[in-house]
Write a structure and sequence with these properties.
The structure is a single chain. This protein is an alpha+beta fold. It has a domain of 103 residues: 3-Layer(aba) Sandwich (Aminopeptidase). Helices cover 28% and strands 34% of the residues. The chain has 3 helices and 9 strands, in the order βαβββαβαββββ. The strands form 2 sheets. Strands 1-2-3-4-5-9-6 form a 7-stranded mixed beta sheet, sandwiched between helices. Strands 7-8 form a two-stranded antiparallel sheet. Strand 2 and strand 3 form a beta hairpin.
Length: 153
């Protein structure tokens, strides 16, 4: 497994994002509440892609909110590659990427029905918070935050 930085216009990033959006649309059509990390309009996000056997199988993005805070704005792993620890490696790489830019606070949001994601973030040291920035959490959204002491990180 290789994790590498890619521009947001990379064709494999675009394919992963499109697949995530399609998966979310199918869930919404089935009547399931849908919330995912991956809001549009964050062209300033830094993308990381996980490559397995030459194929891009997961992507994540992180963007600077301010000098201290970074927001993880996308996390997606293709269904066939879930359950292999890829999301945990990708999350760590996103945190390391943000930390290298001086960020010590990481925030993200996910869906309240995504129990695997909720367990992942809690086990990675994220604590639930009432809102992500100025945006209050809705009934199907859960916001998380992780703080690292600058010297200890």
């Amino acid at each position: 497994m290789l994790i590498e930085r890619r521009p947001s216009i990379d064709p494999e990033v675009a394919a992963l994002v499109a697949t995530q959006q399609r998966e979310l649309a199918e869930a919404a059509d089935a009547g399931r509440p849908v919330v995912a990390i991956g809001r549009p309009g964050h062209d300033d996000a830094r993308y990381l892609v996980c490559v397995v056997d030459g194929r891009a199988v997961a992507c994540g993005a992180v963007r600077s909110v301010d000098g201290q805070t970074a927001e993880i704005t996308r996390m997606y792993v293709r269904p066939a590659y879930r359950g292999r620890g890829i999301a945990r490696h990708l999350l760590t790489a996103l945190e390391e990427s943000a930390y290298a830019l001086g960020h010590t606070v990481f925030r993200l949001e996910t869906g309240s029905n995504l129990t695997v994601a909720l367990r992942l973030y809690a086990s990675a040291g994220y604590a639930q918070i009432p809102a992500c920035g100025d945006d209050p959490a809705g009934p199907y959204r859960v916001c998380f935050e992780k703080r690292l002491p600058a010297a200890a990180a």
